[in-house]
Amino acid sequence: MQPVHIPPRADLPTLAAAAADCQGCDLAQLPGTRTVFGVGPAHSWLALVGEQPGDIEDRRGVPFVGPAGKLLDRALGEVGLDRAEVYTTNAVKHFRYRTGNGPRRIHQTPDLRHVTACRPWLSAELNLVRPAIVVILGATAGMSLLGPSFRVTKMRGRLLPGPAGSGAQLLATLHPSAVLRADPARRDEVYAGFVNDLRIAVAARP
Ligand code: URA
C-alpha cells in the first residue's frame, strides 16, 4: 500500500487518471478489478454518492450501470432528473468481492479502512464539482461523509450540513440495492420512500 496522492490543481479527468493507479488500500490488489471513478458534468448542483462499484460497474468502468443503477435511473426520472445532469460517484472506487466455489464474484461491503483510504478522492471530486446537494446513497457513503456513527434509518430524508466551507448540504437515503433487496411485499413502499427522499433533494435545488 502507498499513501494516496491527490495531484494538486487537477481537473476531473486528471484526477480520474491518477486514481487509476491508486494503491491506497488492499482493494487495488484484488485480481481483475480497476478504479471506477465518478462520472458526470464538471459542475453540477447535485452529486450522488454510492458505496462501491459492483461486478458490472467494475467490468464496464462506470458507476451505477447494473441493476441498482437502473433502479436509480427510474427513481431519478420520477423526480424529474436525468442522470446525465448529475455527478455520480462512489465512496470506494474498487469493487470489493470474494469468490465462492464458482467464478461468480460476490459483493463484500467495504470496511472503514477502505472508506478512509478512498475518502481523499471523493473529497477532491466534490471540491471540483461543487454540488449544492450531495445525496448519500446508503451506509457506506454516509460513513464516508458523516463519520462511522452514521445510520441511514436515523438520518435519512432531511437536509444536513455538508463539510465546513463546502456550501453543500447532504441528503441521506437508502442505497438503491436496499430497495431491490426489500421484501417483495414491501418493495413498492420502500421504493416510494426512496423517491420521496430524492424529492427533498430536488426541492432544495438552488
Ligand atoms: N452500487 C454502488 O454503490 N455503486 C455502484 O456504482 C453500483 C452499485
From TrEMBL:
Record-linked PANTHER family: TYPE-4 URACIL-DNA GLYCOSYLASE, TYPE-5 URACIL-DNA GLYCOSYLASE
Keyword Iron: yes
SUPFAM superfamilies, alphabetized: Uracil-DNA glycosylase-like
Domain spans labelled Uracil-DNA glycosylase-like: 37-199
Family: Belongs to the uracil-DNA glycosylase (UDG) superfamily. Type 4 (UDGa) family.
Sorted UniProt keywords: 4Fe-4S, DNA damage, DNA repair, Hydrolase, Iron, Iron-sulfur, Metal-binding
GO molecular function annotations of the record: 4 iron, 4 sulfur cluster binding; deaminated base DNA N-glycosylase activity; metal ion binding
A biological process term (GO) from this entry: DNA repair
InterPro entries for this protein: UDG_Type-4/5, Ura-DNA_glyco_family4, Uracil-DNA_glycosylase-like, Uracil-DNA_glycosylase-like_sf
Lineage of the organism: Bacteria, Bacillati, Actinomycetota, Actinomycetes, Frankiales
Pfam families noted in UniProt: UDG
CDD domains per UniProt: UDG-F4_TTUDGA_SPO1dp_like
Protein name, per record: Type-4 uracil-DNA glycosylase
